[in-house]
């Protein structure tokens, strides 16, 4: 199966872009969503997270206390490294299992991951897309969506590669600056991926 990795900095709009690919019938694996799902289901991982970040990492009903974990890891690189080391291998396994469920009639799949380049998972993809947007736009979007401060968004940005670094590794680009049409850009890439998948 031809695999396309898609990434972008926080608030770039990668999930929004993926929804357009979904409308075209392309299955999308959302690594960030999957990570949080696994963190509530995998008992070994839950034990690891509790012993590393404290019992307050979960509410009494078993739901993940995102704010508690975020307040620790996005202010301390060593703590974030520990979280990534616990969670990422489980997400990689979940992606492999998901791929197995995809019908062979599907031309290609998309893997959406905030840390596609940082985690090295882009190496398992046939090609990649980087979604970009101006810094102020990204800040405004996330502050509105999550009700957080500019400092909290910047703390996460500081833990991700810059767009310049990501651009060196990316094969394709989508500009989501609210001026260029994302639908047209997605359609253009979709046509290219259909051809590439056929000759794969
Ligand atoms: C720390 C957690 C609980 C905070 O949850 P929260 O609901 O606030 O954020 P959410 O998961 O929706 O992520 C929103 C954005 O934050 C950024 N972000 C998330 N995790 C990371 C990370 N490990 N490093 C850098 N940025 C990150 C990304 O841009 C992401 O799209 C959560 O992000 C988490 O469990 N992260 C570790 C797993 C991970 O690395 N996920 C991303 C790729 S699989
Ligand atoms: N072109 C656009 N026009 C208007 N709003 C947009 C556009 N693209 C994204 N948004 C909005 O910006 C917010 C962030 O977009 P989205 O969740 O797709 O970004 P993301 O890159 O997946 O973010 P994160 O890294 O936090 O998961 C959302 O509320 C979304 O609706």
From TrEMBL:
Catalyzed chemical reaction(s): 3'-dephospho-CoA + ATP = ADP + CoA + H(+)
Pfam families reported in the protein's UniProt record: CoaE
GO MF, one annotated term: dephospho-CoA kinase activity
Top EC category: transferase
Subcellular localization, as worded in the UniProt entry: Cytoplasm
Residue positions binding ATP: 11-16
Keywords: ATP-binding, Coenzyme A biosynthesis, Cytoplasm, Kinase, Nucleotide-binding, Transferase
Record-linked SUPFAM superfamilies: P-loop containing nucleoside triphosphate hydrolases (SSF52540)
Pathway(s) this gene product operates in, as recorded in its UniProt entry: Cofactor biosynthesis; coenzyme A biosynthesis; CoA from (R)-pantothenate: step 5/5
PROSITE patterns: DPCK
Highest rank taxon of the organism: Bacteria
EC number per UniProt: 2.7.1.24
Function: Catalyzes the phosphorylation of the 3'-hydroxyl group of dephosphocoenzyme A to form coenzyme A.
HAMAP family: Dephospho_CoA_kinase
Family that this chain belongs to: Belongs to the CoaE family.
Protein name, as recorded: Dephospho-CoA kinase
Organism encoding this protein: Pedobacter jamesrossensis
């Amino acid at each position: 199966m031809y695999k396309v990795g898609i990434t972008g900095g926080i608030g770039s709009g990668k999930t929004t872009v993926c929804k357009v690919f979904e409308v075209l019938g392309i299955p999308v694996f959302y690594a960030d969503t999957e990570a949080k799902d696994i963190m509530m289901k995998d008992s070994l991982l839950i034990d690891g997270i509790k012993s590393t970040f404290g019992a307050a990492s979960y509410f009494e009903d078993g739901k993940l206390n995102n704010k508690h974990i975020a307040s620790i890891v996005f202010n301390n690189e060593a703590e974030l490294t520990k979280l990534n080391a616990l969670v990422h291998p489980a997400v990689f396994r979940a992606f492999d299992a998901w791929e197995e469920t995809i019908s062979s009639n599907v031309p290609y799949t998309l893997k959406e991951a905030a840390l596609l380049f940082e985690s090295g998972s882009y190496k398992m993809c046939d090609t990649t897309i980087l979604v970009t947007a101006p810094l102020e736009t990204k800040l405004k979007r996330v502050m509105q969506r999550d009700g957080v401060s500019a400092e909290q968004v910047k703390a996460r940005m500081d833990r991700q590669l810059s767009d310049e670094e990501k651009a060196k590794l990316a094969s394709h680009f989508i500009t989501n600056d609210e001026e260029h049409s994302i639908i047209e850009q997605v359609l253009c890439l979709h046509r290219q991926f259909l051809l590439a998948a056929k000759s794969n």
